[in-house]
């Protein structure tokens, strides 16, 4: 086989085997493709190896195709895993866990200070029930006969504990609503550099509208109350960001919110 002069620049049948034409720039194949034009007489310039350029045609000027990006063109940005649609990084699970722990400690510290007498009364009732149960078991009674639903109800501390937990949930929901509506985040979230935003609007620096903050806080409270019946509901909600693309908990999904951790200026430098 003899060497042949490469054909001029132009559109030729795609050597990759597709039904389209590929543009030859005189030295190599480009990524530009187009649908073949209407059949027209073709002028063969000479024998050219098929691996270099199949049948040569009258060259035509390249035109932009919508089938694929042009050579060297950057494809439009897409929503990446771990960011909002406008490119703001979503908060990592460990940052969210840390902020939750901070809020939990803060809330129960306030409860311990303001309701210490009630908590002391509950603990005293529980200790009395425990001592009485151990005394009866030591005397030969069966544990299943000692610790029953009726005995727990008579002890009183279960009812008081339920009321206390319910009050704490309601108080924390109100706290979350106020903080979200005024600061777009709880104290724990602000300490960790987190912010609650509307879904896929990470660059919106405005506070959450009051009704969205209310929906989120109410949904959180419903999950916590439901956890008293479905014990794994709260852990499931808090673990959801580990596998969900938008990293939303149940209350995030209901309220249409996401938690972001914007890159600070010092981090960017």
UniProtKB/TrEMBL annotation:
Instruction: Write one Pfam family the protein is assigned to.
Output: DUF2510
**Record key words, sorted:** Cell membrane, Membrane, Transmembrane, Transmembrane helix
Q: Basic and acidic residues composition bias: which ranges?
A: 19-30
Q: Where is the composition biased (Pro residues)?
A: 1-10
Residue ranges, compositional bias (Polar residues): 58-67
Please list the residue ranges annotated as the RDD domain: 90-256
**Protein name in the entry:** RDD family protein
